[in-house]
Design a protein that fits this description.
By secondary structure, this protein is of the alpha/beta class. The protein is built from 21 helices and 19 strands. The protein has 2 domains: about 325 residues, 3-Layer(aba) Sandwich (Rossmann fold), CATH 3.40.50.620; about 160 residues, Isoleucyl-tRNA Synthetase, Domain 1 (Orthogonal Bundle). The chain is elongated, with a radius of gyration of 27 Å.
Length: about 575
Amino acid sequence: MLASAFHTRLALNPRICINSIVRRQLSATCFKRKSLYVSTPIFYVNSVPHIGHLYSAVIADAIKRYNELLDRSVILSTGTDEHGLKIQQAADKAKMNPLDFCTMHSEKFKEMFKVANISYTDFIRTSERRHYKAVSHFWDILFQKGFIYKGKHSGWYSISDEAFYTDSQIEETIDQKTGKKIMVSKESGQQVEWTEEENYKFKLSLFKDRLIEWIKTTPDVIYPPSRRNEVLSWLQSDITDLSVSRPRSRLTWGIPVPGDPEHTIYVWLDALVNYATVNGYPWSNSLEAKSQEAASNNFPADIHVVGKDIIRFHAVYWPAFLMAAGLPLPKRILAHAHWTMDNMKMSKSRGNVADPFQAFEKFGVDPIRYYLIRNGGLADDGDYSESLIYTHYNKDLAGQLGNLVSRCMARKMGASLSQFSGLGKAQRDDTNVSTHDTDIKSALAALKDDVGRLFDQQELAKGIGKVVNSISKANKYFSDNEPWVLAKSDNAEDKKRLQTVLFYSLEAARISGIMLQPIMPSKAADVLDALCVPSSERSWNYAAFGAGWSSGQTNNSSDSKPLFPRLK
């Protein structure tokens, strides 16, 4: 009876109904949330993990760790996407049961995340019972509200992308292997074939205007801006209803359509619901209660970290599904660029895919995390190069940060860390700082706010760049002030000046060590350990100039092995 009334109102004026949904979604943001919610995409398990998967996970993990430094509770979800025709075919080729095939590859992702120090709070597999329940309920809601209907569908279908494309989204090309003409997706380059079949469709076209309004009124919801512009361009073209099922005769490996076992739910509808599953979906049946409970369960995501190749699914399909279900919309979709090798897209067939496990073994975990975030792109693709890994490690970490700590903490320097608390307060409050110290003081005093603004915007690479620049300035400051000469003097003023020079130099290392914790958790901890920074003084508040160095801090000056041994 209620569903029938809704359908009648929708037929008479769909905009009124959808506007009502959006108003309720906006009201959900008023409820208090327990935690910040960050997600990676769930990774497709038709093959082993590669460096692109790792990049998404490292970005999300760094965002989580940064917010924890701000004393926020953070949920980080990740996992594996395990249904669809590609999985079914890959399992058949491997002569394995699909679930066993998925388990084998899912464990590889878990292993990679463990080695890479990805601090996720939930790892979801779409083959889990809790997810079947969530997807089935979500489907029922969309169907009961009249947003899913059964019909005939024809179009260009890509098995690789698990997606249909319109005529304007495909083009003819020559297959390099066979020399024959084939049709491919302009977006992904994957081959498409003309397909006609009966399936269920979602009324995506109804949500075109609402999606455009949502994006235009919340301009930072899709980042970077180039991705936002791409999405708006898609939405301003013809938007057709979306096929959301496949015949069971063609696709058996997936969640059956509730009430119609002859059809399997489209893998992308299935996959996107994972972001609700990890937060305890399904919730209450009442829309108002559901919105409140969703917020109290940390839904929707504050930040979805995704690759640019799946932006359409996350910035068009997912919010449309949520609008239809009466649920609040994501607050931010961070769509990063891809990795190339020798300026060519990574491809197993070309043999230019970077293996994360080999990279860890060769360079270490934190150097790889650092390189990926330092050189990876949000707007533009990053080029994966082992020579650049060597360069950035030896230049930034060994040559700058490690060298700075080693030089300052050498026994002959006689750094008196117990004095630094008082020195820090005096230098912070003193308006008559020595002209020799003015530039370094200004740089360090501005660093917390400058890097914080960039990290808040998820511009991690730019934030790291500012940290590295400050370390470089500190090294130059150290050399210009020649503390090794001051260390040899018996003059009291020279001794006092020595401690000031060492304070500024090590203050740069201390602040940098705090800021690099989200990027290099283990190596940053080593830096802070070397400086005897207590665990209670490693939060973001202590990244302020002069905010650290507990009085009575023990001295740890030594000539021990370097923090960042040079790579050869």
